[in-house]
Amino acid sequence: MGLIQIEGMEFYAFHGHFREEQIVGSRFLVDLTIEADLEKPAESDNLRDAVNYQQAYKLIRIQMDQKSHLLENIASRILDALYSEMTGIRKATVKVSKMNPPVGGRVNCVSIVMER
Fold first, then answer.
1. Coil, strand or helix: which one is 102?
2. Which residues are known to be catalytic?
């Protein structure tokens, strides 16, 4: 077993509860950790045997392009897409962070973490 991590994927998207957020948009960061059996691709050196992180990025990008009101909804849809479209994932953890959220004060980000 091993971990594949994609960290700091940055997107400009239009998610949020408030109408203004869905018009103006904001920066979001997504981190993904996939637990998978890495022994076979380590031996074969063949992408067909691996969990393809480029495919994972594309699936995440598609989900980030679809508007949501809540970070939880985004993370859940990302996990749904990963498990629906990819094989070899034993466990996936996704962290979605909204940079400079409108909370009434200076906050770097607010994040949610979901795993399946």
1. coil
2. 98
